[in-house]
Design goal:
CATH superfamily of the largest domain: Human Immunodeficiency Virus Type 1 Capsid Protein
Distance between the termini: 91 Å
Organism: Hirundo rustica rustica
Largest sheet: 2 strands, antiparallel
Mean pLDDT: 78
Strand order of the largest sheet: 1-2
Protein name: Core shell protein Gag P30 domain-containing protein
CATH topology of the largest domain: Human Immunodeficiency Virus Type 1 Capsid Protein
InterPro entries: Gag_P30 (IPR003036), Retrov_capsid_N (IPR008919), Retroviral_Gag-Pol_poly (IPR050462)
Helix content: 55-70%
Radius of gyration: 26 Å
């Protein structure tokens, strides 16, 4: 098995996941309970992703399903980051991390702060070190808690997410209207990690239907930047305008012919 950390701390497992599971040991000299490596193929995680649903729609349900999927196993920092990388977009992972750290600082008393319990780089926690093992367990807990509380719970969040783009509404106006709705009804800052995820998701999901269909066909659109999605949406509007320009002269010519025919009929 090979592990690597690339870029901004996102961990990638090149072969598979090998979490540890506590099981009774056959040899008494090894102690009554020991840790056994249990292979978990990354394909299993991708298959599980199909059952996860969407973070914005059901964060509590997603947390419960992931908790059950992870089971009682002990995962390394790299393995947990790899699982998160498969299941969530970059913005969603940032939301979950900040939420998890906030929950830790709020509910857990201890010398370590949330950013220490959930480091950006692999801390190299050793399974033979009891404190390190506890850190792994704490990180797993923070992930589940972070998912549960990642989505803001504003009283009017549903109203903020009920906006739809008008058929002829300019993209800039549509985006600005979404930003204002998030701030006004949910209290979410569109420039935060949570705000960016909400803004981008709603921009696609509630766009005019031709734009929405186009954007949803963009591969891994959830991982694309908002500016890139705006460019793709603009292409749809450009094509629509071109079609209108082609159609309008045809309609005009048809109307002229009908008028001429009617006039000729009256003369007869």
């Amino acid at each position: 098995m090979r592990r690597s950390d690339e870029g901004d701390g996102e961990a990638k497992m090149e072969d598979g996941l090998y979490p540890l599971r506590k099981v009774p040991m056959a040899n008494p000299e090894q102690g009554p309970i020991g840790d056994v490596s249990v292979p978990l193929n990354t394909g299993d995680v991708r298959e599980f992703k199909k059952e996860m649903g969407r973070l914005l729609e059901d964060p509590i349900g997603e947390a419960e399903r992931l908790d059950q999927f992870l089971g009682p196993n002990i995962y390394t920092w790299v393995e947990l980051q790899s699982i998160l990388g498969i299941l969530f977009t970059m913005e969603e992972r940032e939301m979950i991390r900040h939420s998890g750290m906030r929950v830790w600082d709020r509910e857990c008393q201890g010398p370590d702060q949330g950013d220490q319990k959930w480091p950006m780089q692999d801390p190299g926690w050793n399974n033979q070190n009891e404190r390190h093992r506890q850190n792994r367990s704490d990180l797993r807990w923070m992930i589940i808690q972070g998912i549960q509380e990642a989505v803001p719970k504003g009283q009017n969040i549903r109203k903020a997410l009920s906006e739809h783009q008008g058929k002829d509404e300019p993209l800039a106006d549509w985006l600005e209207r979404l930003r204002k709705a998030l701030q006004l009804y949910s209290g979410v800052d569109p420039d935060t990690a949570a705000g960016q995820v909400l803004l981008k998701t709603q921009f696609v999901a509630k766009a005019w239907r031709h734009i929405r269909k186009k954007l949803e066909k963009v591969e891994n659109w959830q991982d694309r930047g908002l500016q890139e999605l705006l460019r793709e949406a603009q292409k749809v509007l450009v094509r629509r305008d071109e079609e209108r320009q082609k159609t309008n002269p045809q309609i005009l010519m048809s109307a002229v012919k009908e008028t001429q025919t009617a006039m000729n009929t009256e003369k007869c």
